[in-house]
Q: What sequence folds into this?
């Protein structure tokens, strides 16, 4: 055992040992209540933080790890040291951690949990607002605004939703499914075209999205000259990634069509039998 630390908040003690683990022991009955595994070499130092809810450990593998006691989870691994981390301690306010290693470096770590949570919350709020705006655009069939928004935010899943709605609207109006898409393709820069092709490549990996993906490819190929696509940066590689899955989907459709002939034959035979029975009566 290289180190031990008594908790100021509970009747437990944490130990760091040469078996690559951090253990938490109860002072009531001296039993091991938690074992934290993740270091690949001896654990040299351990400290409590976050009001006794978390542990920080450092090891001979040059890593610092942050553990949540309740869930046994390693929340973060820090690898700025190049050698054994012999020293580890916390500031009095618990917001700063200092580590020192055999690499002759002392590193000060600040707790940025609040900033990360704030950024995550802001992202979630932005996504909710974007989903609301997108739903409003689709409800009013404002496909132009909806598509511009999802492309600007680089949201492939929402882009699939917009293009699917656009295609369905064209089909309901008795138009070619590529009709609206072709109008958009004519106004796209090549970067936007490549972006949409990347989306289509990813959509095409799933059978249920392959029809929309193929409609997108068809609209682009019909509008953009072949020599322009072949010389555009990254586009030939994207198209090469679309082809294998497209061939697989076409083979699947061919098999379904072939199987449908058996259904037609069965129904036709059933009709003949019904007619014969009717004549017999």
A:
């Amino acid at each position: 055992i290289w180190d031990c630390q008594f908790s100021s908040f509970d009747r437990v003690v944490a130990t760091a040992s040469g078996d690559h683990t951090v253990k938490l022991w109860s002072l009531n009955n001296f039993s091991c209540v938690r074992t934290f595994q993740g270091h690949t070499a001896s654990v040299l130092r351990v400290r409590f933080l976050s009001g006794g809810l978390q542990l920080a450990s450092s090891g001979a593998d040059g890593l610092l790890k942050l553990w949540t006691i309740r869930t046994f989870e390693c929340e973060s691994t820090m690898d700025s040291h190049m050698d054994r981390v012999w020293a580890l301690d916390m500031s009095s306010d618990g917001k700063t951690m200092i580590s020192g290693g055999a690499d002759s470096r002392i590193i000060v770590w600040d707790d940025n949990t609040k900033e990360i949570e704030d950024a995550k919350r802001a992202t979630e709020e932005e996504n909710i607002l974007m989903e609301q705006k997108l739903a409003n655009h689709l409800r009013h069939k404002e496909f132009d605004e909806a598509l511009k928004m999802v492309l600007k935010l680089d949201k492939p899943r929402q882009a699939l939703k917009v293009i699917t709605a656009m295609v369905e609207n064209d089909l309901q109006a008795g138009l070619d499914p590529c009709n609206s898409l072709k109008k958009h393709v004519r106004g796209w820069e090549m970067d936007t075209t490549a972006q949409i092709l990347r989306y289509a490549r990813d959509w095409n990996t799933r059978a249920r999205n392959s029809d929309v993906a193929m409609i997108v490819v068809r609209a682009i190929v019909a509008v953009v000259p072949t020599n322009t696509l072949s010389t555009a940066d990254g586009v030939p590689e994207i198209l090469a990634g679309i082809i294998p899955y497209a061939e697989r989907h076409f083979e699947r459709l061919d098999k379904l069509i072939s199987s449908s002939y058996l259904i037609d034959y069965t129904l036709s035979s059933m009709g003949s039998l019904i007619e014969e029975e009717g004549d017999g009566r």
